[in-house]
Design brief:
Order of helices and strands: HHHEEEHEHEE
Structural class: alpha+beta
Strand order of the largest sheet: 1-2-3-4-6-5
Distance between the termini: 30 Å
Number of strands: 6
Strand content: 25-35%
CATH superfamily: Gcn5-related N-acetyltransferase (GNAT)
Length: about 140
């Protein structure tokens, strides 16, 4: 169910079938991540899933491995709520900063949240593609 949400969210931006096929593995939600508490889920009042995020720790750095909002919920605040929960989880994991390899369509969102653009970095799914790479300081602030 969460993987299907990630696919719907990515496809929302108009990517073609070939791009989506190349992205499939990167959009898969890992059951092990769920089992160890790395996956966060946003639920509406009726119990429907509105979005998900995954935070993977690596020493003093946490990677916001994914953050996807179901297209009907985009713009309704669940992305902000997931980001804030991801920040809290990364801090709980002992990280002092969180890195984000962002889809270009999400770059403005992360900037509004207070993430700082560092550079373009290689895509984790599409060979030859680069994506905006951000860092969020977990030591001194709360999301914007």
């Amino acid at each position: 169910m969460l993987t299907a949400l990630c696919v719907r969210s990515k496809a929302h931006w108009g990517y073609d079938a070939a791009f989506m096929a190349l992205s499939a593995a990167a959009l898969e939600v890992n059951e092990d991540d769920i089992a160890v508490g790395r996956v966060l889920v946003a639920i509406d009042d009726a119990g429907g899933v509105m979005g998900m995020a995954c935070v993977v720790p690596d020493g003093d750095v946490a990677d916001l491995d994914s953050l996807f909002v179901d297209p009907p919920a985009i713009g309704g605040g669940s992305g902000r709520a997931l980001f804030e929960a991801a920040v809290a989880l990364a801090r709980k994991q002992g990280a002092s900063r969180m890195t984000i390899l962002a889809d270009p369509n999400a770059a403005a969102f992360y900037e509004r949240m207070g993430a700082r653009y560092l550079r373009n970095a290689p895509s984790d799914a599409i060979p030859g593609r680069t994506l905006p790479f951000y860092e969020y300081d977990l030591t001194s602030r709360t999301p914007a």
